[in-house]
Design goal:
This protein has 12 helices and 9 strands. It has 2 domains: 202 residues, 2-enoyl-CoA Hydratase, Chain A, domain 1, CATH 3.90.226.10; 47 residues, Lyase 2-enoyl-coa Hydratase, Chain  A, domain 2 (Orthogonal Bundle), CATH 1.10.12. Helix 1 crosses helix 3, helix 6 runs antiparallel to helix 7 and helix 10 runs antiparallel to helix 11. The relative contact order is 0.11. The chain is globular and about 60 Å long. Helix content is 44%, strand content 14%. It has a 6-stranded mixed beta sheet, with helices on both faces. The chain is α/β, with parallel strands linked by helices. Helix 1 links the parallel strand 2 and strand 3.
């Protein structure tokens, strides 16, 4: 730097969703802490792009979704809803959403779910869209003080990202009905008790726990992970006989892979398997 010359250029603003790959693990971080990580057009577009990247990048095997700061996500930015309803095209992100409105539901994991697992790491508050997107993830970790709620009804709104259907399938009907119709929160321990989340950890440790789980998943056979996940999702509400019709072809396809030979071979040779995804 030349002495006496000041640099008045402002630092570039960070994107509102941070997407970082660390080996096979993709970490997706909501980065709007000053707005309690409420989603707006940019957040939704970047979330969708992250899910597509997870699907299309063969080097990625699992993702973690988390939020920067003390709140995971307080839902949709209500001011943004008004702008979208008016068809505003104030910036590239709003323009993209107005022209492709399906992106918002894909971002929330309602109408698009990657073929690879997503782990949620939540701290603080996960309300409205924060609990809606939770239901599209596969494994969920929360700090012990975290609260969850589908609060749209309190504003006369409908939870459009899937909770009216999914929540009762992921927990008891009566509890889901109370959450949806009263809009009240439940605590992380209660959510764990009801099976909505997998792990309750000390505050500030959700991301670390999620990374441990992600590393375990990433070490497994990627074809096996993908096909088991597909069966879990596709057969959720099916009778057992119908579900087996989906399970068996995916099972046979997995067992015919090179990875299915490598796993037992590595066990017999007392070494870690080297899976190639084929």
């Amino acid at each position: 730097m030349v002495t006496g010359v000041s640099d008045n250029s402002a630092p570039a603003a960070e994107p509102l969703v941070l997407v970082e790959a660390d080996g096979p693990v993709l970490t997706v971080t909501l980065n709007r802490p000053e707005k309690r990580n409420a989603t707006n057009a940019e957040v939704l577009c970047r979330l969708y792009d992250a899910w597509v990247r997870l699907d299309e990048d063969d080097d990625l095997r699992v993702a973690i979704l988390t939020g920067k700061g003390s709140v995971f996500c307080a839902g949709m930015d209500l001011g943004e809803i008004a702008r979208l309803n008016q068809g505003a095209k104030d910036n590239e992100w709003i323009t993209r959403l107005v022209e492709s409105p399906d992106i918002s539901l894909k971002a929330y994991l309602k109408t698009y779910r990657p073929t690879k697992p997503i782990i949620l790491a939540a701290e603080g508050v996960a309300r409205a869209g924060g609990t809606e997107i939770l239901q599209g993830t596969d494994i969920r970790v929360a700090g012990e003080s975290t609260v969850f709620g589908v609060t749209e009804v309190q504003r006369g709104l409908f939870p459009m990202a899937g909770s009216a259907v999914r929540l009762r399938r992921q927990m008891g009907y009566a509890v889901a009905a109370e959450m949806l119709l009263a809009g009240d929160d439940i605590t992380a321990p209660r959510a764990h008790e009801l099976g909505l989340i997998n792990h309750v950890v000390p505050d500030g440790q959700a991301l670390a726990k999620a990374r441990q789980i992600a590393e375990r998943i990433a070490a497994n056979g990627p074809v096996a992970v993908r096909n088991i996940l597909a069966v879990l999702r596709q057969t959720e509400t099916m009778p057992e006989e119908e579900a087996f019709e989906i399970e068996m072809p995916l099972g046979y396809a997995t067992m015919a892979t090179e990875d299915a030979k490598e796993g037992p071979r590595a066990f017999l040779e007392k070494r870690a398997p080297v899976f190639q995804g084929r």
